[in-house]
Amino acid sequence: MKWYQLDVEQIEQKLHVTANRGLTDKQVEQRRKEYGENLLEAQKKTSRWLLFMKQFQDFMVMVLLAATLIAGLLGEYIDAIAIMVIVLVNGLIGYFQEQKAEKSLDKLKELSAPMAQVLRDGQWEKVNSKDIVVGDIVRLQSGDRIPADVRIIQSSSLETEESALTGESLPVTKHATAISADELDPQDQTNMGFMGTMITRGSGTGIIVGTGMNTVMGQIASLMVNTKKMTTPLERKLAELGKILIVVSLILTALVVVLGVIQGHQIYHMFLAGVSLAVAAIPEGLPAIVTVALALGVQRMIRRKAIVRKLSAVETLGCASVICSDKTGTMTENKMTVKEVFVNGDHLYVTGDGYDIRGDYFLREKKVDGEYPNLESMLLYGMLCNNSSLQVKRGKYLVDGNPTDGALLIAARKMGVSAMEGEKYRIVKELPFDSDRKRMSVIVEDSNHMKFLITKGAPEVLLPRCSYHMRPNGRELLKEQGRNKIEQAIDQMADRALRTLAIGVKPLTKGERAEDAFLENDLTFYGLYGMIDPPRKEVKPAIEECRRAGIKTVMITGDHVKTAKAIAQNLNILPENGMVLEGRQLNKMSVTELEDVIDDTYVFARVTPEHKLKIVKAFQQRGHVVAMTGDGVNDAPAIKASDIGVSMGISGTDVTKEASSLVLLDDNFATIKSAIQEGRNIYENIRKFIRYILASNVGEILVMLFAMLLALPLPLVPVQILWVNLVTDGLPAMALGMDRAEGDTMRKGPRDPKEGVFSNGLGSRIVSRGFLIGTVTLIAFMLAYQDDPANLIYAQTMAFTTLVMAQLIHVFDCRSDQSIFARNPFENMYLVLAVLSSLLLLLVVIYWEPLQPIFHTTALSMHDWMLILVLGALPSVLFGFQTNRK
């Protein structure tokens, strides 16, 4: 179907929809069944069977399986079967870990999927773009990604960037008129919008004519979902570390095997013990456990209203030293309320808060009614130059659209100016707001077919364009005295932390067109709105917590400098000698000049999104790790350039979300603080289980090495080594990844991004604890072996049990950098349950007779357990007392 050739009425008839009502719920359901979801076919995922088989592709596991085969051929059937079962269970654990990580990432993709505004049953609503169907009426706004192929039916300065489709990055102007030409390529269909392309300017509406694989993008398959797994810097570091540890482990294992053979042990037994030791000692699963820990942390962040789009951001969050945050909606409630209007040279005060239409206007102590000159006209113009609407839900008014526009609608309702009044006028043309123009205009036609222009915007932009102003007796020339009085009113409102918005009007002559460059000049100034967006209650404590954590908070706003300063002082962002910079000052400064004063600056007022990029670069050149927030399409470059780009989940555009690493579901500054806290905790948890696994592995290698150096029998048999690797290392290590943040997490400074994994004494802790675990295990073996050299199985059971208990006690030691006594063990019930399950499995292999010959164990007495517990607790208790004394 050549949709571009049809006019709007023909398309409505073919798709059985009307542009002012949209589809019904029944039609939507039928079309979803007919066409399916609005999704491109993703690359096929690895099958579960292949994912399971992948767990056995590791070189050392293959060597172990070969050794098991040899054991079977030599008649050691029990050992062979036991090792095979352990390898199989280990593979299953790895498989489920990968499945969990994959599901977490899939859920993440689903949460961060683009949204679209659709008209259904006469009501605009936001839906996930995959739920769009053919015939849906969609609203197109600057910064959005077009959700499916759409025939544009209304356009206001609408431009799209179609480089994903054509390779051409220049914007394409769109219109709503049918094109009669035949056989046009997609890039020439200028009344069509295509799935996946971006709206860079203007606004409009359209009818969906193709979804999913029936779109131009679907046909050329150029927007396939990228399913390639991206590794984070930490995962890459650990993979490199793993290679080093493999070499070290293999050398030490080879030394154990050679010494054993020299001392007369059978080559086969030493080979199998060596392979088992290598499998247990090499932390081949470390990157996988890191991925799972990151995925679990990401799930916790989602519960705290933050979606991590890039896993690498989790690591970077812990290094953040500066948060550059928008004010409106992030630090404030984003519920603008008009509290004051300046009209006829007077300040009128408005009662009522939020989106409640109950309220009155007062001039000093006296209530003002509709007879007050110019007030109703000003409120009507604010209602007409507006893209928002009011909706009533459960008896309360809600704003659908921009909160500032919503505040003007509520202000008009308080004076009795209703939507019915607005229906007497027809919007002919809209000149949309953007961050460069700082104003919005509409051309309106009244019932007498007279046209006039209404412009609203920042007072410093609008006032120079005004030649007249309204007085009680009518329009007058705007002279210097009148201009000064308006500027004085702006300053007074700003001192009261009110955001100001000016409104001007101009009658149009027949010769003036919407495209004229000077259309928005010679305006008549009608008045000022003074509105407030109250700070969120939770933001002030969050800023204080960030300060204690060594993180500087910087407020960035388009507000008047006095308004910005007043709010910054209210939130304790601006210290006594802190600087405030305006956009006009930034225009005159280079990045280098800004760099000289950036550390002393806490507020940037009257800035454009272009200034944000300069601010990010200046902070980065001072060595800071910067988190930058934004919501508009022009914020994307700064967000992309920052170390942690943060976009708004509610007000943010799709362009901004795609450039960001973190999406705030509630657009709340406190959520950024929570994300940084969680990011720090995730990194610390990763360090915790690195510490636990490597210390345990060092202990396992050293007990075998020391025994060979002392010409003792093997303290551990291969199946015991593999059991320890499976049960004692796996479950507690995973549970450590779910540990809550320590109380001082947000009282430490930001982590240096160049800092190694083993910094702050982690390496020495691993070696020292590993040495002690190996030593106490050997002591237990020697004491038991001395008592009865003939009973080697008893001595090996003592060594095996001591090693397991030392590791299970040590896991609680790993929860803090201080000591095992620093934290309540029951804070992490997952860890308690993991340790109890490992302990239960240990008791099973010691006391259940059918398993004793398989695991070379024998029952232990209460006296044996007393010795085991004392030796097992010794490494953690010794260091615990030593740390407490410090």
Automatic annotation (TrEMBL):
Pfam families referenced in this protein's UniProt entry, alphabetically: Cation_ATPase, Cation_ATPase_C, Cation_ATPase_N, E1-E2_ATPase
Sorted UniProt keywords: ATP-binding, Ion transport, Magnesium, Membrane, Nucleotide-binding, Phosphoprotein, Translocase, Transmembrane, Transmembrane helix, Transport
UniProt-annotated location(s): Membrane
Superkingdom, natural source: Bacteria
Transmembrane segment boundaries: 56-74, 244-262, 268-296, 689-714, 720-738, 766-785, 791-809, 830-848, 860-881
Domain Cation-transporting P-type ATPase N-terminal per the UniProt entry, residue ranges: 2-76
Membrane topology: Multi-pass membrane protein
Family membership: Belongs to the cation transport ATPase (P-type) (TC 3.A.3) family. Type IIA subfamily.
Protein name per UniProt: Calcium-translocating P-type ATPase, SERCA-type
